[in-house]
Design goal:
The structure is a homodimer. With about 400 residues, chain A is of the alpha/beta class. Chain A has three domains: about 25-95, Orthogonal Bundle (Arc Repressor Mutant, subunit A); about 100-210 and about 380-390, Nucleotidyltransferase, domain 5 (2-Layer Sandwich), CATH 3.30.420; about 220-370, Nucleotidyltransferase, domain 5 (2-Layer Sandwich), CATH 3.30.420. Chain A contains 13 helices and 16 strands. In chain A, the strands form four sheets. A five-stranded mixed beta sheet of chain A has the order 6-5-4-7-11, sandwiched between helices. A five-stranded mixed beta sheet of chain A has the order 14-13-12-15-16, with helices on one face. In chain A, helix 1 packs across helix 3, helix 2 (about 45-55) crosses helix 3 (about 60-70) and helix 4 (about 135-155) crosses helix 5. The first copy, chain A, is globular and about 70 Å long. Chains A and B meet through helix 1, strand 6, strand 13 and helix 9 of A and helix 1, strand 6, strand 13 and helix 9 of B. Chain A binds a DNA duplex (30 and 30 nucleotides) through helix 1 and helix 3.
DNA sequence: TCACATTTGTTAGTAGACCTTCCTTACTAA
DNA sequence: TTAGTAAGGAAGGTCTACTAACAAATGTGA
């Protein structure tokens, strides 16, 4: 044999991968989170149950449960009622009354919506406050006060504060740009954290929405996209249980992708000329799919024309989503927004268009549905942000 | 405060997350891989260097290096020549001569291409064999023989065999469907593994291409899509260092997304009527972007018309990619295929179209380029499959 | 020239994390 | 009453990575 070294291609000289070391204590933290997550998703169970479903030994689970009980996160709930052979199991469960979570949704330009939730995601207290046109530093102060009010309203220690905000937000919770609020490079998480004295997590509102849907909605598979339709249009994507963040933290920014071309005649019911968008370009998705745009489009139309108009937008959306759904082989696409606009001809047309434009292997297992969380998607997602950040529960 | 429990939304009752336990030995394996990966990417270094860049202590690194030396994967290379203060460092480096990797690319319908590579990804020996129209069981036997020949040709122990094949392939290396080869639910990896006696990893060819580009190409950022244009069109996506697999293992199947509509007039240089595709639908990307389709399109045209025709396809591609690039906020899109077709007007038009149709925050940092690996993308990617599967090096 | 600082790599001891093994407890079934 | 089964805990072992301390080898400055 001839050693034909036909091309120079050594590994050296490449950029370093940002891997980090893993210590045994990280393994411990992971297993602790796993026990917690199991109690969270599957409800109370015995230590032996937990051992069986986690794969850890009963001894280890006992140890983990002991430390979780010491932290007040779980508690023994007495023996299991059903009589089976052997020693009766003592159930342990998440103490949903031990901590609470404060969540805030800033998607609405007019009002900030917030809530206090228990560890199971149940809303305990709901508040909102007017934005009154505040922007920049003033808006940060208003938000701080609002969060403080919510923390005050909690009836037990607050695990953390989660905020879902429009805009591009990095992993540290710094708002890189949020035109609506006039925020540019605002370190929102650290500012709130030092003001409130509790951990604060901030993320894009569409990303919190997808986290909420993933954790509390009926997420079945491994690829989930949530499209949030409000004053703007956004998207959040969870793949293999992890949020897609994007190279510049801008993943999911679908609102300003062009969907209407100048010379446009693709559709039987044309969308009309490409409309100017707030971003300065023309024909962006937001110019046809945002709530204001949809309301304008159907204003004064008779029911039949309304349906046709909505279906027309739906077809456009399907065309836009087809490449995304195919590239990622998603299992679910979920719409979050006003059902009267989204959950009829628009959704049907989008699904039909998606099916027409993708392979059966992609479209046959795809589900396209409305969120099960109503308007609280981003809010409960903000809570998930805290659960995930503080307890590792997703 | 009133405890307003306004909606039933406990966590219980949800499907279990498929989390797995983590043991200290897994941490060990991770740290071992990290040391190995560092030697792979950054080249030889002292134990103290490795300690600094991994964050582990010198003691731990010494221990890891000792076990890696015992396995024959690394070796001491003598003292570092540069004279600095202190005890001279003894360099440790990956022994690229200790193991070899066999890689096979099945993307070509006519010939199977294979190679023996060293641990640095350098091709040591190159072979190919005619497919001769074999399909099904017969094709599996031919592949087995070809792999055995390559394993035979290796001059030192074979770390594993990596295969890149068209089709939908699951994580275990079972080909769920590959029409070109007539393979349906063929457990290719386990079949080859038992025949060859070495670990075998099988993945979709577009996925191996993106792995190759990620590891050996100039992947700079965190989101990479490789579009492979050959007899068909495929794509592979790496996000945050991990391959996107998809709900049904079909991520990247972009070849059969519709890009040409029946009533199509979007473009100044229209693509003509939607062509029938092998998949039974019309207007799929493959009907305009595959190598045969492109060759047909430009056959007999003068240079100027050729450019216009290629640009027209490029614009279509840009329209298709815009939602994907936006949804994932990719940092790089890489084309793999014949440069004479792809690397001119087609690529320019695609980039221009992408920029026109996406937000600046998405497009300004996006790079759209040809692969740096030539035709070996899928081949070196298949080697990465082995490196990653056996050593945890990516 | 010689003491001292600096860096490398190793040895010894410690703390944490999980495991296996064995025991007690408490219940069901015959 | 006796055997069998299951839950939970105690004891001891192994593995992992850490800190502390040290020897070796080199450069630096008085």
């Amino acid at each position: 044999m001839t050693a034909t070294a036909d091309r120079q291609r050594q590994g050296w000289g490449k950029a370093l991968r940002p891997t980090t070391k893993v210590l045994p204590e990280h393994a411990r933290a992971h297993n602790r989170s796993m026990v917690l997550a199991h109690l969270f998703h599957a409800g109370p169970g015995s230590r032996a149950d937990l051992a069986r479903s986690t794969g850890l030994t009963r001894v280890t689970v006992s140890d983990l449960v002991a430390s979780l009980m010491a932290e007040g996160l779980v508690a023994e709930l007495g023996v299991r009622p059903e009589g089976r052979v052997g020693k009766p199991a003592t159930l342990v469960g998440l103490r949903t009354d031990s901590f609470q979570i404060v969540a805030v949704d800033l998607a609405d330009d007019e009002r900030m919506h917030g809530a206090v939730l228990d560890l199971a995601g149940l809303v305990v207290e709901r508040r909102s406050t007017a934005v009154d046109g505040r922007t920049g530093e003033s808006a940060v102060r208003a938000l701080t006060d609002f969060c403080a009010e919510l923390v005050e309203a909690a009836t037990c220690p607050v695990l953390g504060v989660g905020v879902g905000s429009p805009g591009v937000i990095d992993a540290a919770g710094t708002v890189l740009e949020a035109p609506n609020r006039g925020w540019y490079d605002v370190p929102l998480a650290s500012t709130l954290e030092s003001a409130l004295g509790v951990p604060v997590h901030v993320a894009n509102d569409a990303n919190t929405a997808v986290l909420g849907e993933f954790t509390y909605g009926g997420a079945t598979g491994s690829g989930l996209l949530v499209l949030t339709v409000g004053e703007g249009v956004g998207a959040g994507i969870v793949l293999d249980g992890a949020l897609v963040k994007g190279h510049r933290h801008a993943a999911g920014e679908l609102g300003h992708v062009t969907v209407v071309d100048e010379r446009d005649d693709v559709d039987g019911a044309p969308l009309g000329p490409a409309l100017e968008c707030a971003c300065g370009r023309r024909g962006c998705l937001e110019t046809v799919l945002s709530v204001p745009a949809l309301r304008r489009r159907v204003a004064g139309l008779d029911p039949q024309s309304t349906d046709a108009a909505l279906a027309s937008v739906g077809r456009r959306l399907g065309i836009l989503l087809a490449p995304v759904v195919s590239a990622l082989n998603l299992s679910e696409v979920v719409f979050s927004g006003p059902p009267d606009l989204l959950d009829g001809p628009l959704r049907s047309a989008a699904l039909e268009s998606l099916r027409e434009r993708t392979m059966p292997v992609i479209s046959s297992t795809l589900e396209l549905r409305m969120t099960t969380l109503g308007e609280d998607g981003a809010l409960s997602g903000a809570a998930v942000l805290v659960l995930s950040g503080q307890l590792g529960v997703t």
